[in-house]
Each structure stands twice: as structure tokens, then as C-alpha cells.
Amino acid sequence: MPAQRPRPSAADGASDPGTSNDKVSALETFRSHPEDGVLTTDQGVPIPHTDDSLKAGERGPSLLEDFHLREKITRFDHERIPERVVHARGSGAHGFFQVYRPLTELTRAAFLQDPAARTPVFVRFSTVQGSRGSFDLARDVRGFATKFYTTEGNFDLVGNNMPVFFIQDGIKFPDVVHAVKPEPDSEMPQAASAHDTFWDFIGLVPETAHHMMWLMSDRGIPRSFATMEGFGIHTFRFVNAEGQWRFVKFHWKPLAGIHSVVWDEAQKINGMDPDYHRRGLWESIEAGSYPEYELGIQVFDEAQADAFPFDILDATKIVPEELVPVERVGRLTLNRNPDNFFAETEQVAFHVGNLVPGIDVTNDPLMQARLFSYLDTQLTRLGGPNFHEIPINRPIAPVHNHQQDGFHRDTINTGKANYFPNSIGGGCPVLAPGDQGYVHVPEMLQGPKTRERAPSFKDFFSQASLFFHSLSLVEQQHLVSALRFELGKVQRATVRERVVNEILANIDIELARAVGPAVGVPNVERRPARDAGPPVDQGLAASAALSQLSNPGQTVAGRQVAVLCADGVDAAAVEQLTAELAAAGVNAEVVSTFLGPVQGAGGGALEATKMFSTVGSVLFDAVYVPGGATSIAALRDGAAAVQFVKEAHAHYKPIAASGEGAELVRAAIGMAAQAEPASAGGDPLAGVVLAETDTATLGQDFLAAIARHRFWERDQTQQMGSSVRP
Ligand code: HDD
């Protein structure tokens, strides 16, 4: 029997491979824990290297003969039954995609040729870390997986809401996922990266730096699925009918802009409505405020790629939009909710290898491992090899082949000819003519069979710094707060210290100084990170596309406004404003102390659909307080309405008031101002639209404020980027 693995304690510095900067010697580790033995395969074969898959050349494709890679990924794929081992919590929607212009010169992909054609799609959004029943507003990466049911078969774009990934080679995927998921002894914490194992991994694997920065930024807590970007991440290839190919990166650009919540809201929303994102998606579609995204492409050739200051096969790197602009080439509209969650959202199976003629992969070693993993994991999750027959996975293109039998076979194959070639079945199905079938790009390969990382992958920090320096001051400040929160939850001082001095300090020394002292690392110093190569000048100081503030969007459709009312409310004013909001796709709900009819001052009634005891301001994007002396007196009597406005104000949200409603708003803001130290400065009335007597432009002004989303200038402390900016 193998010996039990010893439990290193927080004080067990000797066993911590990170206490010195020297590369960990396998022998030393073996000496300190001989009962652990050396790393082996499941067959007991010793493994000297588990960070790179076996490739044909250091930048070449992964090899099928890499039994260590396949065993490691296979074991990982089947860890969870029946929920997905990652991306377990998901929400789906049907829709369609339409291309703006024929992309014939770039690709022969059928669905990218005809602007009149609508290609059906199914999209599944997800969080990565949590279980199926976890909450939506975890600080996490969001999956953004799209299945295009094209006339030439299914194309799956299985992306995320961040353009880079934690690791460079898929062989490390089990490691990063194990590190971020709940810890194996206690199964804690759920859906959170703020724990020792995740940050231990980050400190020891500096290639994670760039993605870690995206996760700590506001991108990790999106306002909704409709207000986040999507990225294919890897470099793909477009191939045209002549066989000419170029590299391509895919983007989804949300028409509603890129918006997030603040961390305080996220934590409250998780308690108040754990289904916040799922509900938002569902209700927007039901209301006809369809989430929409434009497909963006960055196309470049080999010569350009060779000149970039990074390797396009490295999934921890972006191609800055300043280097290759994004062309918006089509639109995705999500317009139908699933009929059945399990049958569709749960059973949908995406696969990076679901490619159509005209789109090909590259030798990105992260992508290469994915090409194996998805189909493999789905064999277990969906109970056998026939899951492509489940309605949500079935292509609209006809399927003819000799695959047969297995669990849950739906198709009834007929005839005797179940092999190719055959004469007794008329030779059917025949091969697709060369100009119609899928042909892989005939790339020349050379190089020694090797487990190595190319030197061109070794600059781990330049783009992490570029990201940080591209953020606005307020976004930088949020990132600092997120790092303080996350590292503040890490119990082992050595882990915190390594992240501050080996990771953050290499991204930006001021960033490290802003975080270190708060998390018990007072002596901040830049120390070399493991295996990191020298920084490579990226040729630009900042990239505007990386800041959410420069992407406010083109529509406010889908936003939610709370209208605070009690009996005696100015119902006419409410009806007028909510009609203006509705025309822009904004949903207004009457919130009161009770459900049901709220009497208007001059007769008539409004319907309260929400009450203070079941909702909070965190579930809305903005607040409107209409007039009506009796209504305002009643609302000011109870603490709930004032607290509602006060909290919305503290979260920098747009607030509008008409008539006597302005009094309540002023009182709430006054209380908010008292709560903040006067030295915080700022403009508390920014984004507060008060129309005491003249309401002519109220709707228009309020909608403009909603489009801004947040008013950070209310509070000077949200601008204190000077302490983190270089
Ligand atoms: Fe993955 C699911 C996205 C790297 C292995 N992945 C999964 C989903 C998304 C992504 C959105 C959920 C799909 C759904 O909604 O059903 N994964 C990514 C992105 C990656 C990435 C953007 C890097 C660029 N993934 C990655 C690697 C591996 C996997 C390197 C393994 C070598 N991913 C899986 C998986 C999952 C999965 C274990 C779990 C459930 C499933 O596939 O069907 O195979």
C-alpha cells in the first residue's frame, strides 16, 4: 500500500518549494517526503517533466503517443459525474448569427458567406470554479461557448470572457483546475479563488500572471452575460477556397457595452439572488431585450505574426487591437430561452474540434490538448459515444457514416454495408469532393520530439503590465482591492509573499506596494520569477480596448430600474417615465413595502411587483423616486427606501427623482455623505438626476446616466490610482 501523503502545515517552511528562488530540486523534495515518492503515471512509470506536452519541435503540434498527457487529461476529464468538471454552472440560450458581408476572400466557411442567411446557434455561458448549484457572481472567468449549426456541420467556438488563459500548455490544465477548485480535504471554498491552493499555484507558475490580472479586474464580476465580451482566445486559421490561409482571432463584442458590478454588490447579490445572471438572461429574452454581440475578427498573416513581440501560439498573450484592428463582421442575437434546462443547457456538448471547412486550428499547445479533452470528457458525462444524437447537439447538416452501436444509440442503421469502401451498399456514403470536404492546412512540420517550452513563450509579465497600465485609475483601484481581498484570505505567509514579490512586483512595483503591506508583506521587493525569460517590449504603453470604461456600448436594453413607491405616489409621472424607459428596452419595476396595487395621488394605481423585504438595490442598475407627498412621507418613515437609495448611491448608480422624490434622495445622499469622510471629496450629485418641477428632460437625462452605468467621480477614493499608477 502506498503511504499516506503527509500534511504540510503553514509553518512547514522546509517542505514549501517556494521559500527559495532556486528551482525546486526533485531530489530535495524527495528527501523531505520520501513517502511521497517521485511523480509517476498510474502505471508507476516515473515522470521527470509534467509541464510540457510532447511536441514535434518546441513550437510544433502535440503527439498522440504522449501517454502521459493523455492519461493525465483522461483522468481529469472523468473526475466529476455527472456535472462538468469545470464550467459546471451554466445558462443557455438559442439565437441566430448573421454575417455582415461575405468573407469569401478569407474563409470558405459556409456560414460566413451570405448576409441574408441566418445560422441557428446555441450559446452556453458558465462560471468555471463552482458546482452546478453555486452562485452566479463568483469572482471567476465566464465561459462563452457558441455552437453554430451550419449547413456544413457544427462549428463550436468554445471561448471565455477573457482573451487569455492561465497556462500555456494543456498538460497543466488539471493542475490549475485542481488549484482553483475547492481544496480536496475540506471541499472548501465553493466557487472562489481566494484560497491558498490557487495562489500557491499562481506564485509558482508565473505564466498565469496575465490571466490572473484579468480575473482580479472588474471582468471577473460582470453585470450580466449581455455586458461581457467573449474571446476565442487561441489563434485559429481561416482558409479560403483556394487553400490560402491566414491567422484569425475571434472576439464577441457586446452591443450593451462591457459593464461590471462592484465587489460589495457581488457578495450581496450572491445571497439575495444566486441566479442573478441566469435570471437576467432569461428575463431579457422573455422581455424581447435580446442580448446581442458582434463577431469581431483580427486577421494577420505569418509574416506579421513572426514580427509580433510575442508568440501567437501562446494563449497567455493577446494581439493588441492597436497592432491588428478588430473588424466586426456579423451579429449574434439570443432570442429564445431553452424549453428544458437539462435537455438543452445541461446536455449540450461543445468541442474545440468541431470545426467546419474554412476554419482550422494552430499548434497552440493549449488548444492541442483541448482537441483531445472535450470529446473524451463527454463520453462519461453524456453516457457513451452517441451524444451527438441528443437534439441540442444534432447538426442540421445530414450525417452519414459507418459509426454504429454503443450506449443510447438513436439512429437505426440499415443495410449490410457498414464499412468503407463497399460495393454492396452502392459505395455509400461516398467521399466528399476535395473542394467540399474538410481539409487540414498542409503545414510543414519539423523538429525533435521534445517536452520543452519555446523561449518565445517565456515573457510572462509584459502583457500583464500592459493590461494594468491600460486600465483607468478606478479600474486599477478595483484590481488592487480584489488582490487585497483574495490574498488576505490566504493563510500561508510564504504564499502571499511569493505572489507579491515574484508576481505582482514583476508586473508593476507600485501594484505590489499597494497590495503587499495590506496582506502582511511589508517588505516589497522585485524578485525573479521561476522560469521567466526577459521582458519583451510590446511596442505600446497602453491599449484602449482593454479598459471597460472605453467600451460603454450602444444600447441600454436589458437594464433594470427600481421605482420606489407607496400609496399617494405621482402615478402619472411614473407612467410617463417608465414608458420612456421601456422604449429604450429598460425594464422598470415598482418596489414598495407590499406587493399589489399602490394607489396614485390623483386616482389610478400602479402594481408593486417587488417589495423591500425581498429585493435590494444591488439587483437594479438604477433607482427612480417619483413624487407624491404621501408616498414620500411613508417611504421616509420606514428605513428601507432611504437605505435603498443610499446603497445605490454608494455603488455609484444612476438615481432619478421627480417632485417630492428629490427630498428623499437628498436625505439619502446626505446620509451617504455623512458615512463617508468629508475628505473623500468627489461630487455626490454626479449621476443624480433631480427634476423637482420640470420633468421635460427627465427621461432623456436618466437614460443618458443609465448608459454611463456608474459615476465613480462621486467618491475621490475611487480615483486614487496615483498610488498604484507608475
Ligand atoms: Fe475548457 C469545458 C473554455 C481550456 C477541458 N471549457 C469548457 C467550457 C468552456 C471552456 C466555455 C464549457 C462548455 C460548456 O458550456 O459546456 N477551456 C475553455 C477555454 C480554454 C479552455 C476558453 C482555453 C483557452 N479546457 C481547456 C483545456 C482543457 C479543457 C486546456 C483540457 C486539456 N473544458 C475542458 C473539459 C470541459 C471544458 C474538461 C468540461 C466539460 C466539457 O469540457 O464538456 O473537457
Strand and helix layout:
Layout: H1 26-32, E1 55-56, H2 67-77, E2 90-99, E3 119-127, E4 142-150, E5 153-160, H3 173-180, H4 196-204, H5 209-216, E6 230-231, E7 236-239, E8 245-254, H6 263-272, H7 276-287, E9 292-300, H8 302-307, E10 327-336, H9 341-346, E11 359-360, H10 365-381, E12 449-450, H11 462-470, H12 473-488, H13 493-507, H14 509-515, E13 560-564, H15 571-583, E14 587-592, E15 596-599, E16 605-611, E17 622-625, H16 629-637, H17 639-650, E18 655-658, H18 661-675, E19 688-691, H19 698-708
Helix pairs in contact: 2-10, 3-4, 4-13, 5-11, 13-14, 15-19, 17-18
This protein binds CIS-heme D hydroxychlorin gamma-spirolactone (HDD).
Features:
single chain, seven-stranded mixed beta sheet, 726 residues, Rossmann fold, alpha+beta, binds CIS-heme D hydroxychlorin gamma-spirolactone, disordered N terminus, ten-stranded antiparallel beta sheet, 19 strands, Catalase HpII,  Chain A, domain 1
